[in-house]
Specification:
Blueprint (H helix, E strand, L loop, with lengths): L1 H27 L6 H15 L8 H25 L6 H23 L13 E4 L2 E4 H23 L1 H11 L1 H6 L4 H23 L9 H16 L7 H18 L3 H19 L10 H7 L1
Antiparallel strand pairs: 1-2
Helix pairs in contact: 1-5, 1-6, 1-8, 1-9, 1-10, 2-3, 2-4, 2-8, 2-9, 3-8, 5-6, 5-8, 6-8, 9-10, 10-11
Length: 293
């Protein structure tokens, strides 16, 4: 029961992290490797700027500033650097990787390499079916479920959300019906950076962040979307839960499991790419269908 409960709690956060990355790739068809930078920047900005605010609003105000900063970063990156070379995915891959490393080195220069933690918003523990669970983990799950629900409502109940789905599934049709594809690309970049930044802030209350945290965040998002199947935005939810359960099972079941869990998941990823490249929840032939649209 420990494994199931903790795996679900962790998997919900993984699903949220994967959903932001899936939006960036599923809609824009580009791998924005700066996605991990959005994750690590927000907690550092929040902690770094909080002493400059008065009363008890310092951390909250600096958190908002951190989110605005990554939104501006993502907008400028996609508007001025990615969109002009969108048809050159390898150039985008290399460029965004280089930018992520630049952000990493700037963070080290400004804040040093010391880990940072966000204070918990819900201290204490709760017993669930005989398992003691940190309340902060439950809070993170609530935030993740709320974000996923809001994204679902946006994508299914609003005209803009439907336009996003059309661009993701049938870009040629989107052009025919007059949807501004570049505007949709920028919108998903903003949403993706927002999701990544919020994930980084709340996950930092459990797991400390450092300038290299972008690598783990990017790895998590990448594994989740591969498990889900490229092009399957909603498949990231069961994929994230599955990844959380696998990591928790390994951490609880093996000596030094905490150090083995991520390599084990990456081995599973390699096997998926070899034997089931369309993912566990993806549609076989999606890439071919997309190329014909």
């Amino acid at each position: 029961m420990d494994i199931i409960i903790n795996g679900i709690l962790l998997g919900t956060a993984f699903a949220l992290m994967g959903l932001g990355f899936a939006l960036l790739f599923g809609v824009g068809k580009v791998f924005d490797l700066a996605y991990g930078s959005y994750y690590s920047l927000v907690p550092y900005i929040a902690v770094g700027l909080s002493p400059y605010f008065y009363f008890n609003f310092g951390l909250g105000a600096s958190f908002i500033i951190g989110l605005l900063a990554v939104i501006v970063f993502a907008y400028c990156l996609h508007r001025f650097l990615i969109n002009p070379i969108r048809k050159k995915p390898m150039n985008i891959f290399i460029m965004t990787l280089a930018l992520a490393v630049v952000v990493q080195e700037l963070m080290i220069a400004i804040w040093g390499s010391t880990d940072v933690n966000i204070p918990v918003v819900w201290p204490g523990v709760t017993v669930i079916w005989g398992v003691m669970v940190l309340n902060q983990k439950i809070a993170i799950m609530i935030v993740a479920i709320a974000m996923i629900t809001l994204l679902w409502l946006f994508l299914t109940k609003t005209k803009t959300g439907v336009a996003v789905r059309i661009v993701a599934e049938r870009p040629a049709v989107a052009q025919i019906v007059g949807i501004n594809i570049n505007r949709i690309y920028l919108l998903t970049a903003i949403i993706g950076s927002l999701v990544s930044g919020i994930s980084g802030y709340f996950m930092c209350s459990i797991y400390s962040a450092n300038p290299l945290s972008w690598i783990e965040a990017l790895t998590t998002g990448f594994v989740v979307i591969i498990m889900a199947g490229l092009g399957n935005i909603w498949g990231v939810i069961p994929a994230g839960l599955l990844m959380g359960l696998i990591e928790t099972l390994i951490a609880f079941s093996f000596p030094q499991g905490a150090y083995m869990k991520r390599p084990a998941v990456l081995v599973i990823l390699i096997l998926l790419l070899i034997f089931r490249p369309h993912g566990l929840f993806g549609v076989k032939g999606w890439v071919e269908e997309e190329s014909k649209s």
